[in-house]
Amino acid sequence: MKDSPKQLFFKGVFDALPLIVGGVPFGIIFGTLALNAGLDGWQTMGLSSIVFAGSAQFVAVGMLAAGTSIGFIVGATLIVNLRHLIYAASMLPYVKHLPQRWRIPLGFLLIDEVFAATYPRHLDNPDSANNHWHYLGVGVAFYVSWNLATLVGLFFGSNIEGIGEWGLDFAMSATFIGMVMPHLINRPMIIAVLVSGALAVVCYDLPHKLGLVIASVVGMATGYILEQQMKEQ
After folding, report:
1. Domain boundaries, the chain
2. How confident is the model over 180-223, as pLDDT tens digits?
3. Distance CA 28, CA 148 (A)
4. How far is the C-alpha of 67 from the C-alpha of 148, rounded, in Å?
5. Of 111, 127, 146, 136, nearest to 28 (Cα)?
6. Which of 47, 135, 138, 192: disulfide with 16, CB 3.0–4.6 Å?
């Protein structure tokens, strides 16, 4: 018996919960740090509700605090989010049949965690006509939780002394590690992760979060080149 759209939506919400647990502390810290960087409440919530990309938001806030120009901030955040193009290309075969009113919101909701929770289902059930409802459930769950976590950080983060020193941001790092590990099944993926990790450490002290940008771009390029070489062999 096929699951109904409603059942798939709530299954998506349920599947998102383990990753949301790791993302909530990250959102709280973002709300707190954004205020400390000089953003007001509306600007902070605008970033979370309109940009909806944790890593890009943190990069932007760090650069704003350092007095970086807007043009450089926009360029850096676009580079950091280049990986979303890979996610979009991977999901395209499964959503291209949908009308635009579906593709636009699903594209907006396509962040790291949503891809990690949604893509395996599309691989396992490629012929399901209602997979997009599961995708929507995952995306909506993350969107709501991220914005609520940001709101908590805005209202309560400044009242919690030394919240930035609690190490809560490691929860997101652990979440990303958990998302990546199941996909380390071939040589290009493994080498791409190793290259990105090594560069992130080596370039850590570069200003304006450039180390993250360099690690992201070089890691993706390495994985892409090696994957193309495998296809040609």
Report:
1. 5-167, 184-233
2. 777 677 888 889 889 988 998 999 888 766 787 788 788 878 88
3. 8
4. 28
5. 146
6. 138
Residue 39 Cα distances to 28, 149, 161, 172, 210, angstroms: 15, 16, 19, 23, 22
Closest to 109 (Cα-Cα) out of 141, 151, 79, 62: 141
Query: Mind listing the pLDDT tens digit for each residue in 222-233?
Result: 888 888 888 777
What tokens appear for 130 in the block?
């209602």
Place of tokens 């997009």: 132
Joined together, the tokens standing for residue 58 give 């943190």
Q: Which of 144, 185, 149 is nearest to 12 (CA)?
A: 144
Q: What's the token pair of residue 117? A: 């929770």
Q: What pLDDT is recorded for position 168? A: 60
Q: Which residue has the higher pLDDT, 98 or 72?
A: 98
Q: Which of 39-43, 48-52, 81-85, 171-175 has the lowest mean pLDDT?
A: 171-175
Q: What is the DSSP string of the chain?
A: -PPPHHHHHHHHHHHHHHHHHHHHHHHHHHHHHHHHTT--HHHHHHIIIII--HHHHHHHHHHHHTT--HHHHHHHHHHHTTHHHHHHHHHHHHHTTS-HHHHHHHHHT--HHHHHHHHHHHHH-TT-TTHHHHHHHHHHHHHHHHHHHHHHHHHHGGGSTTGGGS-TTHHHHHHHHHHHGGG--SHHHHHHHHHHHHHHHHTTTSGGGHHHHHHHHHHHHHHHHHHHHHHH-
Residue 9 confidence (pLDDT) = 95
